[in-house]
Amino acid sequence: MAAIDQAIARPRPAEARVPRTLLLHEWVVTVDHKRLGIMYILTGLLFFVIAGLEATAMRVQLFFPQNDLVPPETFNRLFTVHGTTMVFFVGMPIILGMANYLVPLMIGARDLAFPRLNAFGFWLSFFGGLLLYFSFLGGDGLYGAGTAPAVGWFAYAPLTGRAFSRGNSTDYWVLSVLVSGFGSIATAINIVTTVVCMRCKGMTFGKLPLYVWMLFVVSCMVILIMPPLTAAQVMLLLDRFLGANFFDTQAGGSAVLWQHFFWIFGHPEVYVLMIPGFAAVSEIIPVFSRKPIFGYPMMVAATVGIGVIGMGVWAHHMFTIGMSAASNAYFAVATMLVGVPTGIKLFNWLGTMWGGHIRFATPMLFCVAFLFQFLIAGLTGIMLAAAPFDWQLHDSYFVVAHFHFVLIGGLLFALFAGLYYWFPKVSGRMPSERLGKWHFGLFAFGFNLTFVPLHFAGILGMPRRIYTYEPDRGWDLWNQVATAGVPFQIAGVLFFVANLLWALKRGERAGDDPWDAWTLEWSTTSPPPAYNFETLPEVRSRRPLWDLKHPEDPDWKFE
Amino acid sequence: MRTAAGALPAQWALPRRGRVGMAGLIATESALFTIFVVAYLYYIGKSLNGPYPQDVLELPILATICLLSSSFTIMRAERALEHGGGSGFTAWWLLTIALGGYFLGATAAEWHRLIYEHGLTISTNLFGTTYFSLVGFHAFHVTVGLIMLTLVFVLSLLGAVTERHAERITVLGFYWHFVDVVWIVVFTVVYVIGR
Amino acid sequence: MFGACRLGWGRGYLARLCSAVGVLFLASAAAAERTAGSPGLPHAPNIFLPSSAPAELIRELAWLVLSITAGIFVVVTGLLVYCVVRFRHRPGDDGHEPPQVYGSNQVELAWTVVPLLIVVVLFLGTTRSIIAIESAAPPPDALRVTVIGYQWWWEFRYPELGIVTANELHVPVSARDDRRPTALKLQSGDVVHSFWVPRLAGKTDVIPNRDNHMWIEPFEPGTYVGQCAEFCGTQHAKMLLRVIVHPEGDFERWVAEQQRSPVVGDDPKVRAGRDAFQQTACINCHTVGDTVATGIFGPDLSHLMSRETLGAGVAANTPENLKAWVRDPQQLKPGCRMPAMQLDDDALDRVVAYLLTLR
Question: Cα C272 to chain center, whole Å?
Answer without folding.
Answer: 40
